[in-house]
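Journal club side-thread
Mid-discussion, someone asked how the predicted structure for our own chain would compare to the paper's figures. Pasting it here so we can look after the session.
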Amino acid sequence: MKDIILIGSGNVATHLGNSLKKRGFNIVQVWSKHINNAKILANRLDCESTSSIKQLKKADLYILAVKDDAINQIISQLKDITIVHTSGSIDIEVFNHRVSNYGVFYPLQTFNKNVDLDLSKTPICIEANNKKFENKLMNIARELSRNVIQLDSESRRALHIAAVFACNFSNHMYTISEKILSESNLDFRLLLPLINQTVTKLKDHNPSEIQTGPAKRNDKQLIDSHIIGIKDAKFKELYTLISNSIISHNE
């Protein structure tokens, strides 16, 4: 399976396309509903572009890398192809036996098309509707990463939920931290050694083992002092909610 078409031109499609091309796969075409976006990625990958599903060319594999709420609409227009989607939360049966070979090719990573990324350590989760196709997908994934696993839809959904907590929510906490620091003319980079040390400890310890801070100690006087010092009402509410969650977890 060497000839691949990317249906999508966003962050995931960009990184998968770049990595697949580097590993010798032939990217035949890029589709996007916005032709300019398709052209930008197609130029990077030295392939054709289109904004029409009807103009998709033939390929060994079609990788559907679009927003979750667009998957059904696109699938309804496709027939007689071999296809995977890249979503962490959409069940494999979204394909509903519309094609003979279908599956999931989910890279567990945070993607930004403008930030370089090495996929070699990124977990790639594979699911397929038959064993033969699963093996083919596993082989493709192993060309990109040393961390490839077979995962059913229910387990993948749980993994995706956990990833939202671990990555998306924590990054939002960084955004709030940056805002609080900026109000006192302080640089967010002051927190980077603290953040890096926390991540380093996670390599050898369970998260619950390395929890620190006033909520872990149930230091209510300090917690109340912090809440008073927070200017934004929504941030006060969030600080209280998370502190209570930590206290409850450690009771």
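Post-session note: The first strand starts at residue 3 and ends at 7.
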